[in-house]
């Protein structure tokens, strides 16, 4: 029987190809993502192993705050260097730094994207323990010299001898470029920009005189790394709050940190590749269901001549196995190409991965082929069982055209799922876990898919009405063809439904977030202009600049807001830092209780929902620890509603601290009677001098902030694109099989006078109605999901759901276009139907 | 008995084939389904094409009806030379001037009986002649089943709907390919009587392909085909005469 089914499978190459196509697409994304993350991981493993090759030990502060977006650590006093160099076994030691610094290009624009990789300032030294080496020129010496990495030099078109402006904590300065540096064997890791100085200059300009981020140590080879580390640790004073790591430990830590950051991205990609695979499942299931129905006669004949039910079922599963393995292998190969495309995409947005070829692990191929094959077989189980149930007598009968479905049972099961899902949703709206929200959404989706066949007929008939009016009998046949097999129509529309529901939900969510941002900024921002950089938590505008703007004659008032990582209670959030002395009437936190005015350095403000959650009221005490290890008890002075972040403190708190403090945005109110132009000119002069910051009017600023959501949405759309392709392929396959199944009918229609163009029209509208059915249900489901998510995330700052009307219309038009595109090939095939053979074989 | 096609008044010819040849395959495997066949069918008459399997009777019908193309020679519907027409023009001609009744699978399963009857008209976006359509429906006596789908009709009823569809456009000529082949004898004779009435009472032209002597005897004239040639003709046939002729045809 195995040989027989193998033969039967291979005899139908067309069907084999169609079924494989769905699997190929589904698995290619998965394999592409896997290869891509493997490549990233091995690239950084290799890079850091190379860079830290000569580092045998690493000394740094024990104080740190991990916000979940990378760890922030307190600086270490450079005086420890003296102690370390005296330790027996140490050959050389040098400070290391990775602080904020931004290179300004020759046009006065900062280099590096706002949302792209970070811009760093660091130390480059001739010491053999240093991480950077000279590619061209020499290492910088003294307060007037610097190096930059090769990639940044290329981007900024800088050459040795040029004067380069750099913005950092202490403002913007000019340096003479004396060298181009390389990091291991690459010019820049991950597309970040680096401005490099000698240690004293870096400390003073980027951080705080006498401090570095860490100390790199090279041994003289007499001690093992572990022994050396122990020796250094013993030599360091116990009250210095310093810890020593081996070279291997810091390599491992650095690598895993960057992997964590990129891990967000790959996890995201993987999630979407599983969505694509899930959608692929529907297509595979649909194809097997249709082919099983079409070979009903064949199966019945086999039964009549003595094949058992089991044998029929097994033969279809064998086919699934062949198609699954074949499709997954091709999908894996296609994934290699896809991973290249992903790399190219990352390069295009500035996140360069310094790859040396792709890393293809056996794991990736095993995983892809295994998952691909298993889901193919799983998708084929139901159709295979159904196939086995064909009575031998069916061989003598014509294939039934209208399949009867047990609607009541279907609707009942579907409703149970929807109700169960809704209960979970309501629970999550009332504050249950996010996991419950996910389960609820899943339940509702599954319920809708189960009910699908019950919905497809009435909705298809309804959607087909205008087509009938427009296209007469041809349109009526499209409408009836969509309605004649409700199960098939529902299954074909399912990928469109899921894709559209996801797109709609994300769009609705984005619209709500945008609206929220607009309202929030609109409420808190009372001034005329905003000067901002998009680097929340890492670098920004020096606070001295804010004060400088405030003193301009053209400016009545200016206040800056920054963010800083700190430990608050048992959390490590970014805390909002503002200046209560200048914020009054310009930056409004929308206080619920207490007042923001006159907030002292011993006080803290808490977001009202957070306060409720943490049981904090005015007068409560909160433990706050800064990155430098300084810990204090702050008193809650009030609660607020509108702001980025759950905690707000006065900038006074950081006076005299080594913690670098920047403003992310400055709100400005022009002085009475000053023209718009002269106010802008005066402020621009300062920001141009600084080289960074974007000056915008209030409306422009609000638009820019809201538009950031669109970038994220564009990424989601991009990732859902593959799912849309699979949905289109699903429609194409179904239509092709339907056209084949109805060839007698099409032959008859041609015989009695249907033109080829009418045949095309008939197939095209069938496709459009199917696609629109999926899209219409998807839009409804997506909007409902969006509403539920917004409501359940209510306490995360969402207040109102915004319906994205324009986008919804675009999605429906898109579904129409998808229907038209998907119909092109099947419609063409339909017009090629040979009238004579179609009629003769009837 | 020996009346030939040439005896028909040229103005009265509904369809004809001139030296029609249809060859399938090439070289060794060449099959001459039609070999230089010339035949005419008179307007207002019920003609039958008879012959054993493989005699080329279905191929002849398909070619004259514009469903298939000849290898050489020409076919005419009325005065129209089909070989000069594009696919679109032939389709339009089939829709307006030709009616079809096939052995099986005659109806579109998603359309009801009435929609099936008026299908060629709807495809051409024409309303047709309401009174005529009603007359046709009355003739096949299916008034009470017009809103039923094919799956809800018996085989005989389905063929009656097919005949009605063929008549609906009042075509130049109707081709019927073994229209009773899948029916029991009672339903079969019903259909043949309807076709007979369509010719006699409604003045239509029908050409029927059959291998059944009883069916053929309903026709006014029979053209016998054998091995792709016209083997002979017979007018005013009876089943006995036909069987007798067929017996001698092989000799």
How would you describe this structure to a colleague?
The complex is a heterodimer of chains A (842) and B (251). Chain A is an alpha+beta fold and 842 residues long. In chain A, 57% of the residues lie in helices and 17% in strands. The relative contact order of chain A is 0.11. The mean pLDDT of chain A is 84. With 251 residues, chain B is of the alpha/beta class. In chain B, α5 (130-140) packs antiparallel against α6 and α6 (155-168) runs parallel beside α7. The A-B interface holds A 401-402, 472-474, 476-477, 480-481, 483-484, 744-745, 748-758, 835-836, 839-840, 842 and B 58, 62, 67-68, 87-88, 91-92, 94-96, 100, 102-111, 115, 119-120, 122-125, 151, 165.
CATH H-tier superfamily of chain B: P-loop containing nucleotide triphosphate hydrolases
Q: In CATH's first tier, which class of chain B applies?
A: Alpha Beta
Number of strands of chain B: 10
Query: Which oligomeric state applies?
Result: heterodimer
Q: Helix fraction of chain A?
A: 55-70%
Spatial order of strands in the largest sheet of chain A: 6-7-12-9-11-10
Number of helices, where a helix is a run of at least 4 consecutive DSSP H or I residues of chain B: 9
Query: What gross morphology of chain B would you assign?
Result: globular
Mean pLDDT of chain A: 84
Count every helix of chain A, treating DSSP H or I runs of 4 or more residues as helices.
22
Strand content of chain B: 25-35%
* Ends distance of chain B: 18 Å
Roughly what is the average pLDDT of chain B, rounded to an integer?
87
Q: Outline of this structure?
A:
With 842 residues, chain A is α+β, with helices and mostly antiparallel strands. Chain A has four domains: 1-50 and 259-400, no CATH class; 75-240, no CATH class; 453-525 and 701-842, no CATH class; 534-692, no CATH class. In chain A, α11 (407-429) runs antiparallel to α12 (434-484) and α20 (756-792) packs antiparallel against α21 (805-831).
């Amino acid at each position: 029987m195995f040989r027989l089914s193998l033969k039967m499978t291979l005899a139908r190459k067309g069907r084999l190809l169609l079924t494989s196509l769905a699997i190929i697409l589904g698995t290619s994304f998965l394999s592409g993502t896997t290869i891509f993350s493997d490549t990233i991981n091995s690239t950084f493993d290799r890079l850091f192993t190379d860079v830290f090759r000569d580092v045998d030990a690493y000394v740094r502060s024990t104080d740190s705050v991990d916000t979940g977006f990378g760890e922030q650590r307190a600086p270490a006093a450079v005086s420890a260097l003296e102690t370390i160099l005296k330790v027996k076994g140490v050959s050389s030691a040098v400070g290391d730094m990775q602080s904020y610094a931004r290179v300004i290009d020759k046009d006065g624009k900062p280099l590096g994207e706002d949302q792209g990789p970070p811009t760093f300032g660091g130390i480059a030294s001739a010491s053999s323990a240093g991480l950077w080496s000279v590619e061209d020129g020499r290492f910088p010496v003294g307060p007037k010299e610097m190096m930059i990495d090769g990639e940044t030099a290329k981007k900024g078109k800088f050459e040795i001898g040029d004067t380069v402006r750099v913005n950092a904590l202490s403002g913007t300065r000019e340096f003479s470029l004396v060298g181009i540096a390389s990091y291991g064997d690459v010019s820049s890791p991950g597309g970040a920009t680096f401005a490099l100085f000698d240690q004293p200059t870096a400390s003073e300009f980027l951080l705080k005189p006498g401090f570095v981020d860490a100390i790199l140590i090279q041994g003289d080879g007499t001690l093992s790394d572990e022994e050396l580390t122990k020796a250094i640790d013993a030599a360091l004073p116990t009250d210095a709050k310093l810890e020593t790591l081996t070279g291997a430990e810091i390599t491992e830590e650095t690598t895993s940190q960057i992997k964590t950051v990129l891990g967000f991205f790959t996890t995201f990609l993987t999630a979407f590749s599983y969505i694509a695979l899930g959608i692929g499942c529907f297509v595979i299931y649909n194809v097997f269901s249709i082919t099983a129905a079409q070979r009903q006669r064949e199966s019945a004949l086999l039964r009549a001549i003595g094949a058992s039910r089991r044998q029929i079922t097994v033969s279809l599963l064998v086919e699934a196995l062949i198609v699954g393995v074949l499709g997954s292998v091709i999908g894996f190969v296609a994934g290699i190409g896809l991973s290249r495309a992903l790399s190219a995409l990352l390069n295009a947005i500035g996140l360069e991965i310094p790859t040396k070829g792709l890393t293809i692990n056996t794991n990736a191929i095993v995983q892809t082929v295994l998952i691909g094959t298993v889901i193919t077989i799983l998708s084929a189980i139901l159709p295979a069982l159904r196939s086995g149930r064909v009575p031998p007598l069916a061989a003598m009968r014509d294939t039934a055209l209208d399949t009867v479905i047990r609607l009541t049972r279907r609707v009942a099961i579907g409703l149970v799922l929807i109700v169960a899902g809704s209960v979970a949703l309501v629970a999550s709206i009332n504050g249950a876990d996010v996991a419950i929200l996910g389960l609820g959404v899943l339940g509702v989706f599954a319920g809708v898919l189960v009910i699908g066949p019950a919905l497809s007929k009435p909705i298809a008939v309804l959607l087909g009405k205008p087509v009938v009016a427009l296209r007469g009998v041809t349109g009526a046949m499209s409408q009836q063809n969509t309605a004649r097999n409700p199960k098939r129509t529902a299954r074909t529309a399912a990928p469109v439904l899921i894709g559209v529901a996801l797109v709609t939900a994300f769009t609705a969510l984005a619209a709500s977030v945008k609206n929220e941002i607009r309202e929030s900024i609109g409420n808190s921002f009372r001034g005329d202009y905003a000067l901002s950089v998009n680097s929340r938590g890492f670098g920004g505008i020096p606070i001295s600049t804010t004060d400088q703007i405030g003193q301009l004659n053209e400016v009545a008032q200016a206040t800056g807001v920054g963010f800083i990582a700190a430990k608050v209670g048992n959390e490590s959030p970014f805390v909002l830092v503002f200046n209560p002395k200048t914020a009054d009437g310009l930056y409004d936190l929308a206080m619920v209780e207490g007042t923001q005015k006159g907030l002292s350095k011993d006080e803290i403000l808490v977001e009202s929902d957070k306060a409720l959650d943490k049981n904090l009221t005015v007068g409560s005490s909160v433990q706050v620890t800064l990155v430098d290890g300084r810990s204090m008890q702050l008193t809650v002075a009030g609660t607020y509603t509108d702001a980025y972040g759950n905690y707000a403190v006065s900038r006074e708190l950081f006076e005299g601290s080594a913690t670098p403090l920047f403003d992310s945005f400055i709100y400005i109110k022009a002085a009475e009677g000053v023209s718009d132009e002269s106010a802008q000119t005066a402020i621009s002069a300062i920001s141009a001098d600084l080289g960074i910051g974007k000056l915008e009017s209030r409306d422009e600023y609000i638009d820019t902030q809201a538009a950031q959501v669109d970038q994220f949405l564009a990424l989601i759309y991009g990732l859902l694109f593959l799912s849309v392709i699979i949905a289109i392929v699903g429609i194409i396959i179904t239509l092709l099989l339907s056209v084949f199944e109805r060839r007698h009918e099409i032959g008859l229609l041609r015989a009695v006078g249907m033109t080829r163009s009418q045949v095309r029209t008939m197939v095209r509208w069938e496709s459009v109605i199917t696609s629109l059915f999926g899209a219409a249900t998807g839009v409804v489901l997506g909007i409902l999901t969006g509403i539920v998510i917004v409501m359940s995330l209510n306490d995360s700052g969402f207040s109102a759901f915004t319906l994205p009307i324009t986008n919804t219309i675009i999605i429906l038009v898109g579904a129409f276009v998808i229907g038209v595109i998907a119909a092109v090939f099947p419609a063409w095939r339909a017009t090629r139907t040979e009238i004579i053979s179609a009629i003769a074989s009837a | 008995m020996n009346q030939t096609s040439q005896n028909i008044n040229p103005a009265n010819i509904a369809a004809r084939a001139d030296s029609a040849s249809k060859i399938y395959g090439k070289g060794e495997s060449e099959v001459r389904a039609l070999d230089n066949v010339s035949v005419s069918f008179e307007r207002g008459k019920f003609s039958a094409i008879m012959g054993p399997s493989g005699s080329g009777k279905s191929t002849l019908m398909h070619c004259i009806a514009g469903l298939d193309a000849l290898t050489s020679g020409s076919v005419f519907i009325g005065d129209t030379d089909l070989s000069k027409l594009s696919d679109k023009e032939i389709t339009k001609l089939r829709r307006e001037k030709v009616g079809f009744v096939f052995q099986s699978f005659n109806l579109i399963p998603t359309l009801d009986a009435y929609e099936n009857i008026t299908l060629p008209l709807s495809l051409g976006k024409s309303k047709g002649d309401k009174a005529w359509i009603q007359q046709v429906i009355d003739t096949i006596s299916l008034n009470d089943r017009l809103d039923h789908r094919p799956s809800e009709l018996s085989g005989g009823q389905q063929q009656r709907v097919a005949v009605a569809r063929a008549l609906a456009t009042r075509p130049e000529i109707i081709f019927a390919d073994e229209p009773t082949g899948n029916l029991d004898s009672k339903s079969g004779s019903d259909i043949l009587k309807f076709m007979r009435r369509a010719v006699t009472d409604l003045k239509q032209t029908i050409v029927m392909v059959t291998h059944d002597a009883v069916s053929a005897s309903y026709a006014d004239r029979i053209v016998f085909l054998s091995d792709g040639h016209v083997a002979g003709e017979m007018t005013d046939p009876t089943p006995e005469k036909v069987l007798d002729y067929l017996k001698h045809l092989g000799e």
